[in-house]
Write a structure and sequence with these properties.
This protein is an alpha/beta fold. The protein is built from twelve helices and nine strands. The protein has a single domain, classed as TIM Barrel, CATH 3.20.20. About 50% of the residues lie in helices and about 15% in strands.
Length: about 270
Amino acid sequence: MSRISSTYQALRQQNRKALVTFVTAGDPNPQVTPDIMQALVRHGADLIELGVPFSDPMADGPVIQRANERALEQGVALANVLEMVEQFRRFDSQTPVILMGYLNPVEIFGYEEFAGTAAAAGVDGVIIVDMPPEEAALLNRHLRARGLDQIFLVTPNTTERRIETIAGIASGFLYYVSVKGTTGGKQADALDVSEKLRLVRSKTDLPLAVGFGIKDAGTAAQVAGYCDAVVIGSALVETIHIAATAGADIAAEIGSFISPVRFSLDKAA
């Protein structure tokens, strides 16, 4: 059983919701990313999504776009991100790490080499935002051969037939994009989320995570009753950037931001 599956199984047995946190690798600088990952876990993150910097992050709003730019300016590439995961694994062998990014860097790396190197570094799954399931068979085969999960996005516009296609190839969990548009946009609407997730649940037994519209503890609590996990990204990335710019203690600021979200999820369970 993968780290992702075992984490969700353990949380389900404890009647707890998973907190999935997204940060951009290399922002504010490459050296601090493994420390940021450890701080996330200390303050209640159950899974970590690590954004791979890319020059055209089409699904991301301004906050994460700027984080990508800052990381790219420091020369952070996919190989560097895998090194960061390897460094994190020296201190944490349990928390699932998911790479979230775009296809081009993986294409350049090569599917088979990417899968092997990612698995060796301690990666547990990947989200390739711009890879449709109809074109994912080859990469999916290499990932599965290395024990890695390929996680797909489902959006408010995803048709029933397409949900079935996605469910047939995905593993780990499904990521429901709760709002139309890019990350960091409008706040998730719990009623809209609940209606769509009923359809998604009828097509798969995989855990369901909700993201793209989770800004704070209140939003997390509102949608927690309809899913297995909430994903918080843009607001966290901005918190880290503000702390770094001000010369503040980044780990402490992460705690101040994440701890109320963790509390709200445990209270809502």
